[in-house]
Amino acid sequence: MPDPRLEIVRRIRAGQHFLVAAHAGPDGDALGSTAAMGFILEALGKDFSLVNDSPVPPQYGWMELPAPLIDHPLDETYDLALVLDCGDGARLGELEKQLDPARVAVIDHHLGNPGFGVVNWVDPSRSATGEMVALIAKDLGIPLAGPLAEALYTALATDTGFFSFSGTTAVSLELVAEMIRGGLDIGAVGARIKNQWSMNRVRLWSEVLGSLSVCCHGQVGTIRVSQAMLTRTQTSSEDCEGLINNALRIKGVAAALLVRELPEGGVKFSLRSVGPVNIQTVAASFGGGGHKNASGGKLAMPLAEAETALACALCKAVEPLRG
Question: I want to staple 204 with a disulfide (CB 3.0 to 4.6 A). Which of 3, 106, 228, 235 is the partner?
Fold first, then answer.
């Protein structure tokens, strides 16, 4: 079996028509990787479309894209669909039904990815999918500069907590150093990433964090976001990005939980941890997935019931820390 990274590079060189896709509701890594892959294909003179089941999130509206982000393939005459940062096919949303698995190449760093393409480069040791896309750019001789570097930096910075999470790799830092040497202004790009809040988002965070609680001898922090909170503050799910990390700022908290009520019923949950606490196994036991220290999923439960069930599971995960 050929090395999947080299096989993807080979197929990019050999093909002419491409789709670039990522998980629905793209975060900084998914959108940054999508844009970066587009810039790579553009530099090679390839034809490509950027597709996603969701539009560009408002907080990333500043990001330069090499093509519009559309919600479905315009035709079926593509050589390869490059699917980025997607832990399984279902995370593509409706787009999953529109792609031919025999022409899908998966590039992802999520633990537990089943490999749903004809070529699957899945490497959980990578700090972000953006790191993997940057390596493909280097394999193809594309300099990490200009809008490509800005997109890659966004992917890397947002998925590593600006290079503070334990999953941050030496390779990711070396890649950023190369981007800086190529002219990347990390101060300017960092400001565009961080300084996108609305007053409504500030009001949401104020209300939500006011109800933050801890349990399990102060080792688990829980955050609950109801539809009523979102309605009162005139905010959306995008305004919840990063909320969960505030629970980890509390001294003694080793694992954190955020449950967000969905408009159609049920909840979306996010889990975070520090150090040795493996919350990927907790997420997997509830049908979710992700990484050792960052995972999530969905549950068909009322908000309070889901919060209780997940908090109990996290308590068991942190129990060994109490000796």
Answer: 235
154 and 28 Cβ atoms separated by less than 8 Å: yes
Strand, coil or helix: what is 55? coil
Q: How far apart are CA 296 and CA 3, in angstroms?
A: 29
Query: At the topology level of CATH, where does 199-322 sit?
Result: Diaminopimelate Epimerase; Chain A, domain 1 (3.10.310)
118-137 confidence digits (pLDDT tens): 999 999 999 999 999 999 99
What is the CATH topology of the domain spanning 4-194? inorganic pyrophosphatase (n-terminal core) (3.90.1640)
Strands (E), 149-305: 213-215, 220-225, 255-261, 267-273, 289-290, 294-299
| Residue 1: band (very low, low, confident or very high) from pLDDT cuts 50, 70, 90 | low
Q: Is the pLDDT of residue 323 over 90?
A: no
For the whole model, what pTM was predicted?
Answer: 0.87
Our separate counts of H helices and E strands in the chain read 10, 12
Any idea where the domains of the chain sit in the sequence?
Answer: 4-194, 199-322
Contact criterion met (CB below 8 Å) for 299 and 313? no
Distance between start and end Cα atoms, the chain: 45
